[in-house]
């Protein structure tokens, strides 16, 4: 959806939302410790927060509109038109 021109309806609204979030990333590591007479295998895990930010755009006019979802929130196979999805209110 393109932004409305001066002659078009004044009932159109475009929202550009910026948000941030953190996700928990879990990692595993494996190692071996050697002593004089034996070896010990060790498996360890760690967790850390990975911050990310993604914009989301919403265009509305009367009772219809389009929303552009951040690509990281879309499944590999999805519809839409280049990330834009239509909706009705």
TrEMBL record:
Top-level taxon of origin: Bacteria
Name used for this protein in its record: Uncharacterized protein
Species, as recorded: Sphingomonas oryzagri
């Amino acid at each position: 959806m393109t932004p409305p021109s001066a002659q078009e309806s004044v009932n159109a609204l475009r929202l550009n939302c910026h948000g941030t979030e953190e996700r928990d990333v879990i990692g595993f590591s494996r190692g071996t410790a050697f002593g004089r007479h034996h070896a010990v295998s060790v498996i360890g895990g760690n967790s850390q927060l990975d911050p990310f930010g993604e914009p989301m755009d919403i265009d509305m006019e009367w009772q219809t509109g389009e929303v552009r979802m951040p690509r990281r929130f879309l499944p590999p196979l999805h519809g839409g038109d280049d990330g834009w999805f239509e909706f009705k209110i």
